[in-house]
Batch of 3 targets.
Target 1
Amino acid sequence: MTRNTARFMPGLIALALTVCAIWLNLLAPVDRVIADLRNIVLQKTVASDVVIVAIDANSLRQLNRWPWPRDVHARLLQKLDQVDPHAVFFDIDFSVASGNVAADAALATALGEPRAYPLVLPAFWQDASAQSMHSRVLTEPLPELAQHAQIGMVNVFPGPGGLVRNAVHNDQFGQRQYRSVALQLTGQRDMKNGQFYPIDFSIAPRSFTYISYVDVLRGEVPEHLLRGKTIFIGATAVELGDNIPVPIYRAIPGVTLQATIYETLRQGVPQLASPWVTLVMLALLVVFWSRFDARGWRLQGVVCLLTFTALAGLSVYLQADHNVLLDVSAPMLLTVLALFASIVANADRQTVAAFLASLRLKREQALISGVLETSIDGILVIDASGHIHAANPAAASLFGVKTSALAGRALQTFLPALKPSAKKGREVQAGRRELSLQTAQGTLPVEVSISPPAEEAQGLMTVIVRDIRERYRQQAVLRHQASHDSLTGLPNRALLAKHLSKLKSPKRAALFMLDLDGFKTINDTLGHRTGDQILRVLGKRLRRALPKEVCVFRIGGDEFAVLVASYTRPAELQQLAEDILQRVREPLAVANTNIELGGSIGIALYPQQAEDGGMLLQCADVAMYTAKRKRSGIEFYDAESDHNTLRNLKMTGLLRQALAEQQLTMVYQPKVRLEDQRCTGVEALVRWNDAELGVVSPAEFIPLAETGDLIEPLTLFTLNQALHDHAQWCARGIDLKMSVNLSARHVTDSNFVKQILAAVARHGVSPERLELEITETALMDRPERSQAVLAQLTQAGVHLAMDDYGTGFSSLAYLKHLNLHTLKIDQCFVRDLCQSDSDRKIVNSTLNMAHSLDLEVVAEGIEDDAQAALLKDMGCDVGQGYGLGKPMAASDFIDWYVARHGQRQTNVHRFRA
Ligand code: C2E
Ligand code: MG
Ligand code: MG
């Protein structure tokens, strides 16, 4: 059933029950009561022309007997004849002879007098006997009387409760038609037999004028009271027993009832509303009620009352203004029943809902109390003044008191730092903060969260108190981890930076930078675990050896820093540095052997040498490198030497950029066969012309590149460029030997060999046309390793040349194993060759030695013809130098070559084919 249909249900159920009630005539008593109430409400005194000449107690007493002889009535009639009334009705039974013949005759005579107004005598029928309810007898005036008058029926018909409510216009008795007294007196035409109509009891009996019979009889009544009036003559004295039970007035004399019926007719008989009206009302109420279904019994009750009021008002209004009688019991019953049905239906829904809600509430309460009981946080409820109302067990144990002992105490007793609220009347401010909790056992850090006061909870506030000792401990651990080295437990670089940032001039401080010598070798040879062990021991030693105010940090692999927060003389620092080195040098027993370490210390001073901590660190670093380079152990920072260091730093950056942006270029220096002055090869030399630094010599930037990670890309660049240019020249028919310089670093890197050979193949150059120049010192650095690497190159066909021969200490025996192709005599022997006897001897023996090993010899740095001629005479094969040809750009070299040799070589093509 949809919600829409459902809301009609109570109304429809009520309608069904109401129709049943109507069907079973259960509503009639209610209607009667309502009709009576309405009449009470509408009770009025109407302008009636009725005068009741009452046979009242006074009349009975005055005439002193009963029944009166009928001549009394005759006399009354004569009196009335004199005042010319509108009509006269004798409500007196004249159906049998009284026994006083004269008196009866007198009445008959009086009645027989001619008169202009109607005179009515009563007739009625009644049951024949007490036993027989079915045979009726008619009681009507004696014929001698009746003949002079109209007969008016006075029968009334008691309804439920014995009350007379209705009257009838006329009725049939036997063959004869009898009109009612009221009909006779009003002269209205005949109505349908037996048609009942309601007597209008809203007409108050006081509407009629009552005059004592005896007064009229004695002529004591002013004429105007009787003239033109409708006179009802009848018994009102209680003792005469002619009282009839009616609604509202309980019982009224029969004559008054007849007068009321007459007046009802005069005023107009009230019309009963059509049953259809009731039906329409019932239907409308069903629809109307549907709008208030499930709106709560209170509203429905009000709607019910308003409906009642409206119905009552309507029925009163209809009777008062339109003389229409509308029975409202059925609509009222429907309203009450609909209200009841709605309440029953909704009560059902609400009861279920309430039951479920209570279950939910119970579950939630159980959950909440469970949470409170088991929470490890202290949870308290406080009032606006900060006094504790309730607390959970965790709060009690945190505060170190019993739960019961907490109630009523001020929260500030335990949390003295709790700030009062800015708001008036509030002792405690809502929010979250970290405070100290004061307990009998001492203070402990807690986080306190106070909820804003809840209006619905009379301003109570919830306080959550959390023990944050563990959090503090964790934070401390994290802080320590962040600022300390995990291996040695010493403060780390971050903490050093923090200390350095706090330096304040003019307070003097010094920073030592300590780097272990040869530590890399220890790591490589003994393994990292031994290396770590050494560092741990060393860390401990340093910490123990240094005074308290001196702090030692581990800031890198084998780098330590020592911050001297204050000192008076640099000599103290020197002494301290020496002590430190002493500690470092003490033998270390690790890995079953005694190890002796060395170290270099750089010292920088604040604020004399560095204006801030960052600079101080840099200066100490520079000084340490100086100490390392000089192998002096301890070095104070010197601004002069730092200049180069700074330039190097800058240069490294710029070189990296130049490589990335391909700003480096190649020049080629010819190598000339001294015998016929023919150019047989070139040496590729790299050039760097930086926008900021100007032209930088390879002698400066190559060693720089070798210390960092730039030498590999640099060599690959030169190699590729040289091979590329070589291929170009070949294409033009010039096939010369291309010499490229190799760094010492590459000589031990077999991986790099693969890259070289790949480049050769990529450029389509025959390997024999490439010669790699390697300095003597590079070859001597790690002979075994370089030997293996170089063997790979020679096996591939690449020629090798020993560069700068004579500057190192290569032994002849060693040279033999290298599979060299060329030996280049360093220019320092050529420079003064013509003048220096010893140089000539060296060159001479070198030439002999080289030739005996079947090596080609190149003399470097030939600047003039004399040197060239001498070397030619000495048997040197090839010469290189400014005097023979300067290093030139690739295109310039072609021009130089063509100008020198005139024509291109073509044999290359043949060779390559
Ligand atoms: P190097 O390999 O011995 O190269 C010869 C150096 O002597 C070159 O200096 C050249 O310009 C210079 N030179 C030639 N003839 C004369 C002369 O008659 N008199 C004088 N005083 N000098 C002469 P450069 O080009 O400045 O190169 C210096 C060093 O830089 C080279 O010595 C070489 O070891 C290195 N180098 C140059 N280019 C490269 C390169 O591309 N890769 C590598 N790894 N090193 C290179
Ligand atoms: Mg060279
Ligand atoms: Mg050289």
Target 2
Amino acid sequence: MIDNFRWWQSGVLYQIYPRSFQDSDGDGVGDLRGIIARLPYLRELGVDALWLSPVFPSPMADFGYDISDYTGIDPLFGAMADFDALVAAAHAQGLKVILDLVPNHTSDRHPWFIESRSSRNNPKRDWYIWRDGQGSGPPNNWLSEFGGSAWQFDEASGQYYYHAFLRSQPDLNWRNPDVREAMHEVMRFWLRRGVDGFRVDVMWHLIKDAQFRDDPPNPDFMAGMPPYQELSHIHSTDRPEVQDIVAGLRRVMDEFEDRVLIGEIYLPPEKLTAYYGKNLDGAQLPFNFSLIGTPWTAQSVGDLIDRYEKVLPQGAWPNWVLGNHDRMRLASRIGEDQARLAAMLLLTLRGTPTLYYGDEIGMTQVTIPPDRVRDPWEKNLPGRGLGRDGCRTPMQWDQSRHAGFTNGEPWLPLGDDFARRNVAAETADKTSMLNLYRALLDLRRKRPELAVGSYRRILQDGDLLVYQREHQGRGLIVALNFGSHIIPLPKDLNGQILLSNFMDRLNCPVPIDFTLRGAEGVVILPDSPG
Ligand code: GLC
């Protein structure tokens, strides 16, 4: 631990999509035993915590984000004993374990929903959001993120229920205190088993407008955007009351020692910061996804960092994310060269970074043939480029059949570059993306300036962004070239180059007339920490 910083502040998080990380039993789907086998890889990589996307019993309509039992393990992934073994093995290797908590909605096969749906007078009726229709239509105009109305008519009981996602993912009613208590108990169940934290799914969706007002049209909507974007979701999401719910979740975390509450929240920085809570009694890390959607230029990235730093409440800890199981692979979004620059940016910014499995070897978005599409979003709205399968393909470990991921038939096709782009090949190549990630993680671990130091922008000019990280009088300079051409660095920048993302300049003096190659980034230990 550095000074008084917690592990989730100075450390680095790594997201595992369990279906796709490592299969141990040949069914083509990754599992917990597979993850256990790969823990040494993660330790050597140099990350501090794993976050697992859902592993609970589920009909898998949304691949585990539709839960039918919050306190079990889906047999596809293993048994509870495997889970306990994973936590024990991870802890023994100095790795923390973070689970995905999906409190906004359950599967329609969850016993709570089956009861709730059974009749209007069932005691669990109010655990979900049931409303009468208006005329012959749904209660209001709210939309599902996955397309169409968010209301589903239930013939048997003659009312509509609300689902922000699939029809088979009914939203829980968080205004009901019994729902809150039930979910708090779910959290305690896992926290007692030694889980170190939760990433809370769609945190900004948890509470909806009590008056069920229509969402207004989105003035920025343009043709080609997903239909969900036609409205501004000011009544169906991000209600002020959600902060009480978040504070309630945090209180449960605080019954245990040193745990972390992370929120999945797709909101601009100015709105995101509310989720830290009034007196920082909310999420410790409301996920900051703004880098994912920002144009990849020195100016917009530089401005975004300043904008985010400016709105952070006093004492709130920043964080940065570049990819996850819902967004196009980083290397495909910005290109392979810039993905190496992005790695340096992510691991030298102030705040907790989250890595997405496979990005450390530069995995790209895989094109999925139509007959192998699995993602319900793509199935609902085919051909719109919304599909998430392409960023969820099996981890590429080596060049053997199925890339060392499985002995069976993988649930999604592998990237066709796996024979060359894999952990084994990149381990052997001194300048590979993987070795760059390892070097960056190693530097971050050795240099408290990078892990916990302050951030100050020094210069942004054209494609160049230069900033300083400083801790207790020691400073480092990071210079990044977002363009594809050579650019000179300021003359007064003297010192040692600790690392270049090209992996060819390591621990050498800054040359006279130093230039950065296209997409090159360097970390410099300056002669004077000014
Ligand atoms: C979150 C998850 C996504 C899922 C959705 C509904 O955004 O990351 O994968 O489909 O919630 O649970």
Target 3
Amino acid sequence: MLPQEIIRKTRNKEVITKDEIEFLVKGIASGSLADIQAASFSMAVFLNGLTKEETLNLTLAMRDSGETLNFEDINAPIVDKHSTGGVGDKVSLMLAPMLASCGVYVPMIAGRGLGHTGGTLDKLDSISGYKTNVDVKTFKDTVKKVGCAIIGQTSNLAPADKKLYAIRDVCATVESIPLITASILSKKLAAGLKYLVMDIKCGNGAFMESKKRAIELAKSIVNVANGAGTKTTALLTDMNSVLGLSVGNALELKEALDYLKGKTPNKRLDVVTKELCCELLVNSNVAKNKDTALKMLNQSIEKGYAYEKFIKMSVSLGADAKVLENYEENLPNAKYVRPIYAKSEGYIKEIDTRKIGLGVIMLGGGRTSPTESINYTTGFTSFCQIGDKVDAKTPLCYIHAEDESKIKEVSKLIVEAVKTSDKKTKASSVIIDKIS
Ligand code: URA
């Protein structure tokens, strides 16, 4: 087969065969396909799309480009959740131990921050000793022993995705529905899941801003995942405001641990976390309906089971239990913490959520180049929610910074990003839609 002839077909909107797709994907993984050819293929797909069958074949070929895990020796459902990325999205940190406390197993392969969105791995890296880059054996052992493990993509898990993703990132082909579908699902399916729930973020802090595009992506992922034998549903959730009260790595980790301890959960964060958990518990028949699932989840927090699972998982992956048990004192804190006030008092009407994510990057909490090390302590806490009243005493949020000179610039960005109104405002529902 000639790679240029296959790329030519996609360029000309002709359908390519399973064998042709496998040939390209093997070439990407082995390096026999030149980066310029992989880039051209990704641009042809970006411009012309792929059929459902081609998308399924691309996903399966990428899944099979490296090692695939199986947990067949575990006699319980193997489940996972994946989010398309948001600002303040710390759901995975709570969902994995909560589900593990309810009797299912969660082998979660998570990612680092991407663009303005935060990444679960960066949040976990703020725990000293926690290793997100362990080998497959440690990962599997932790899943079996604890019920959940959250780590990064190992070098041999869907390596074609790793390469193609890096190429897409620098040639403007990230926002393609078939490519996102194959990229996300190749990693998820390689982890040996039987049940998956997708959190498709929608709004000004998400990659898919419009509901129409978010639904298109949800349908594509649900179709392909079910076609590949993993029972999958998707929830469309609102990303027109920060999820929860904190944004930034260690700050979000603290909010997640507070939540697992049953302390003052933020309503929207609580709803998204539990709805996603319920999908998995009901789909896997561990709970007969949503009410039963909610009872199990509430118990996992009230009895301290989920918090305990989080500690056990972290210790199994290298963390010191003592640091986590006293996390409020032991997790790193920023040097400067200052309130940010709105220009005038009023009710929060609108938040340009993408800018809040960019604010974290400007404070050093995210990367501006792939290998950069980041600052775990920086970000925002007590972030206002749509409908909240702010005035001269109630700030929009508190900024956490290591470098005092950044505070002015980032505070200005936050003030500009949050719009107030004289009239009372109300937040829209956080769950927008469900795709089964
Ligand atoms: N996350 C991924 O893993 N891949 C994409 O293409 C987009 C988001």
